[in-house]
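haha ok so turns out i had the wrong file open the whole time. this is the CORRECT one, sorry everyone. sequence first:
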Amino acid sequence: MASAGASNTISLSKHRAKSHAFQRLYAEGMELVEETASYLDGEGRTQAKDLSRVTATLYAAESMRLTTRLMQVASWLLLQRALNNGEMTLEQVCAEKSKVRFDEGQPRSEMENWFELPLTFKDLVRRSLRLQDQIRQMDSEVFGTRLPENETNLPLNDNPVVNQINLLHTAFGR
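then structure:
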């Protein structure tokens, strides 16, 4: 019977991060980011003009949450890809990954105006939440940790957009 020493241990979860499953997740994530950006800048903008004032406010709020969620997803995916490609060390990735904060909140689908939102928009929100859950699961399996939740009591000078841009610059070594 072989010893269970650290040198003989094979980490299946770390292999999963380099697997075809990660490649599919990466492709799906980046495609969703592009699709959402295109929608919000085109068809979504046009559709939003036809919404009632209350529904337009909900659309604007959920658009911000969707955009932020996808920035976090893209950041995690790029960090994992950088680790897989040897562009960053595990320590660098863990330090940067600590800045990734996923939204725990669900869309405000309980609000009656939720049903007035465009179907395409609601589908993008649903898909982004599903993707976020998949990434949380993979992160837990690979790193043995749970990604931090987005705290609502952030300091006033903490700008999530600037943080994400910095994270992306770090991932690309700029």
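The radius of gyration is 18 Å.
again sry for the mixup
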